Sequence to fold (174 residues):
Amino acid sequence: MNEEAYRDGSDEKCECMGYDKEKHFLMDLKDEPVEHILACSYVQALIDLQSADQKWQKMLDLFCNTSHAYATNYKENTQQTSQLEAKRRAALDGMMVHIRAVADLEERLGIKERWTPQHPEYLSAFERIKSRDFRRALDKLQQLVVHVAAQLSRRAKSTNILVYTCSSSATDVR
Fold:
């Protein structure tokens, strides 16, 4: 493998090294249309809104179904009610933030009717989100592998252990 050609970064040398597909993919990522970015943000906002709504419903049910009929201590009853009310209000505030975010994105995208999980645009944006999340996880994994390889290399050098590397032609000893 010609490292000098890789470092140079010219198109011709990248293609001969087999990096042309990766380079094309990365260049496409750089130029992702704003509409795709907003659509992905909208779908994520819808998912977040659904989650906030579920949290709100859970807190509302807990608040409404808590019985104080057997409470004998007024101070404890008041404290428990205040805690439940604070959690309910926080859940409602969180849901309102998500409602505003969804409404803002609907206005920016010119959406007249809210997308459902069956809507083709929703499905397309959801696939892009999954792909993006997969790429991010892959990047984190690659960073971890490089970090561990660097640590192992440092340890090997400090203990004078031979390090074997794999090249395109054969295995060489450093």
Summary: The mean pLDDT is 80. The radius of gyration is 27 Å.
